[in-house]
Design brief:
single chain; alpha+beta; 10-stranded antiparallel beta sheet; 7-stranded antiparallel beta sheet; 38 strands
Length: 871
Amino acid sequence: MIDEPCRLADKSAVEDHMKPMSLLTVVVIRVIGTALPSLAQSAQPLPWEREMPLREAAKYVVLQSTLNPTNPQPDNGASPFGGPSMTICNLKMRSTIWGPPDRITISVTKNNVWDRRLHEFPVPTLQDLTEGAYAPANKDYVGVKENSLRPVDLGWLRKEGGSYDPYRKPMRYAFPCLKPVGQIIIGIDDLAGAKPPSLTQNCGSGLVTLEATSGDAKATLQYVLGMTRDTYAIRGDLAGIKKSVSLRLYRHRDTTHLMYMTPDGKKYTNPDAEADKAFNGPIDPPTSGKDGRYFWIRQKMPPEKTFPQGFEYVLMGVVSAPAEVTLDAVEGKTHLGTPPQNQRLNGEWKNVIRPAIADAPGAAATAMLTPSNGKLEAFVTVATTMDGPDIMAVARQRLKEAESGGFEGLLQENIRWWNDFYDRREDGRVFYATTGRQVTDDIRAIYRSWTCNHGGGTKTDMRRFECSPSYALPDRDFQEWDSAPCYNEIFHTSRFVRNWGDSVDMYKQLVWHWLPAARQNAHDMFGMAGMLISHGYLPPVKPDKYVHTTITLELCLGTMGQIMRPVWDEWDYGGDVNYLREQCYPLMREMALFYAAYAKKGSDGYYHIIPCMEEERWGIYPQFSRNKDVISSLCMFRWGLTRAADAAEFLGVDAELRQHCRQVAAELAPYPTWNKPQGVIFAGMPGVEPMHLPQDHFGDAASYPTVLADEINLDSPRDQRELMIRTVQTLRSGNTPEALTLLGVLPDAAATRRRPSGGDAETLLNSRSGRIHLFPAVAPSAQVAFHHFQARGGFLVSAARNADGMYYVEIQPRRDNQCQLMNPWPGKSVAVHEVGKSESIPVKIDRTDGECLVFQAIANRKYRVEFKGEL
């Protein structure tokens, strides 16, 4: 349903077609002595046949905000540091619009603009970690912070005694790190002191519009960021403007070296940094220039192994109207840009104030103009080393192409892109009404569904040296967590159910990019076969050597299974056998080789995982006392070994390996438990009382057998389901809502922290067990439908229900497969027939824990499931 802060742009169109609904219209169909589905369908068209297409509805939906005068931090895709400024994204750039009305500013980041220098150090082996943990000098070491279970640091215990974290101590450098591209500033002095204007962003085109006024002065500005061009088009309609108007491109000089050097970069103010002078010097200052009608700023990053000559980019602009423009370029001066408010660093650097970018010198290129007819049209583009050897030529060519089509040309190009996107999103739509043409799905969520929250609002591809998580923010030189995603919160299976799997392909690309180094990591650090990609901040650099940043968290061994979930889900829900053979199984095999080698059989007959670590908790403890058989590692080892064996069996390969994988998976140590006042619950590790403190990571590993490993699901024995429900209700965390949903329990509103966009898909369709459950976690009176959701086994599923219950079910397999569907009308007789044929196909009934319909489905045929009985 369309809801705030979305609003509808065209009032008359709204009244005719798109009126938001506070109450859903209900049509109740009462049927006596006849088949329900046939009459229900004849009485009303199916929702996906009735409601307006998304591409049409999106034209009337806008995001709305107010221009913030001082804070550029984005209002979307910036968890956990959401800000007030409207986010404007394309596939490779994330920008925000902010500033006072007389200096309306676009702050630009691009997901391949990085300082890629590495702070490397000797990496401990498993033997080194073991010797340190068992050293007498560390027998009293405590690995957690006060008032939290987070590790006290991210290093390891040395056998000489004490924790050692050379990545951060004596200091941590601000690289590898995503860097701000610069600012695009429209200066209109006549609007000084004006009220901050409202902003709208159209969901059908990405068009951003604002109108600022001060007395007789009025400026209407429109912006379009080309989805595939990395080019901004700017159009202005100015009235009552007496003073000159400017379009400025600006970048400050990088400030991170000020944390350990003098501003000129010639002297170290922190003696600890001088030992690293071979690689920790300042970034060259930005430059600016002008030539003919073009003006630009240019920035080069220091040379390093990925770009030995240095990575470089240019932000270049051209003004098309008016014709009379004066250009100027300056360097090394202060107060050229829009000053962002100074902010404290968070995360690892809580309570540390970064050097003020507002006070830094910089470079600017400015076009001064006096619009004779009140019209402004300009274009700005970003070109980088990745675009070609001559970035100036690339930028000029892009601007020429943009000018030839004009503002309208780029706008229409965007509309075509969004039309195609919304057409793809017709698969995965949700419908909440039984009548009317109104779109009842959340268009705002769909508009942003081409990327996930960890993608930072862009489409990142590590293979092209791109990376930009949600917390890589604009106008910041020192980013949190090395500007890379955390790899221990990948709960994205619901996106594959929703048919939004394309939004998380960054993980598949990441694993393929890092595969050579991950193999080296498994061999050199652990002496084992296969690959190991674990928690850490893998930057977009040449993958000839694994980058270690968090040795402690690299023992969160279940994290590799999390990273591999999107790889597996692409096959499991999509059903493409070629993808399984060529893309999925080779990676699953590498994971399984490592997991099978790491687990060691003990005298009790179980395989144990030692050392391992609960995600973002505890740290390394003496004698690995809190690093044994962590539940997240146990369940993800079992998941990874079992799924790899399933894939090998399906493909008819690696018989010996799959046999060993199944053996290890079957004989892993049992999950640890703890007796709480509420009853027995799952525990993070054996012998340690489970708890969740306010400053802990939002997730809780005890939920992982359900939310990640699919092991405790709707079809598990009742005692297992009740044990997990009791666990997540006792240990409230960010995983509680999803775990309850997956077990068929409606979560309460207080437990919905961090619920992701699209995360409700499995309330409507849950196939984690292999059986398809329709509407397993919705209210009995719910009126809702979905079209072309995905189920495990490669099935496309559409279903609809009204106040009387289910009235439509259709299933389409992508490959020949056995379909297992929980009876939509329990206890009633049903028939399954191929669409277009009247005769039913054979159906078996599996009454194990419910009533499951089992039938053989042939690829690309459609099957209708219908109720044959009488009410």
